[in-house]
Amino acid sequence: MDLDVFVTAHRAEWDRLEQLLGRGRRLTGAEADELVALYQRASTHLSLIQSSAPDPLLTGRLTQLVARARATVTGARRAGWRDAARFFTAGFPAAVYRSRRWWIPTALVSVVIAVLLGWWIATHPEVQSTIAAPEDLKALTKPGGGYETYYSSNPAGSFAAQVWTNNAQAAATCLVLGAFLGLPVLGILWVNMENLGVGLGLMASADRLDVFLGLILPHGLLELTAVFVAAGTGLRLGWTVVDPGPRTRRLALAEQGRAALGMAIGLAVVLFVSGLIEGFVTPSGLPTWARITIGVAAEAAFLSYVYVLGGRAARAGDVGDVEAADQTATLPTAA
What we know:
By secondary structure, the protein is mostly helical. The chain contains 13 helices and no strands.
């Protein structure tokens, strides 16, 4: 492409577009139609120049011109309460619902691994000896030992905040590092299941498995579900790198990445709830059945939220991405 000829042929259109954008008054209907047409042509021109004859100065001018025109055409707006309400009633639950084919198998496989690991530790004393010295194991598993006092080791408020921060960071890490083919996510899952399996095995070997489950279930149901959702979404993001489907890899990753970012925000709220349960309910003096009932109720509420609101939003076409008006526009391919 002869760049000088191209610029000579289309400079008048760019100047006219800049003139319309600089108008201080409201555009007439004809001027608005003209602006839209010129914006579409300038977008095409920018695409052609970037692919055929990249020129830094010209590309910079057209990029700025197209960005200004797009803001004028689409209308810039500020996020408000409506966006937050839409996110929590449609976007977030829809994203979780649509990822269920990833996080449900992730949850099942992870729990099976934790149970098998716990069984292996409980039935093999020589394995227990590699974890800690006998007196240290006894200090952990005895009545009033480390496993029981852990949840009341700090004031409830600060303990809940600490737990929430740690879990939110783990969930966000799963979502962010999922783009690396999901491999870091597997490592994070293994660490979590290893810790759970060790607790199951050691407390079972001390005939105190019922006590351990009474401590872990009230908050663990919701907490682990959030971790599994984050891990499943991270693995899905990693698979998008391998198989983006009918879309280009860039567009597929952009969509999944935006959904994952929203997922991180939503899961932070879910983990905040589980942190409150862990800080205030788990170490409380409530009967074991009451504490477990609270945990089951929180888990049932979250799953109902995902399958009712999320399922409805997903069937309506919501993928958990930002609204179409806020997505990056793809450049037209024809004038």
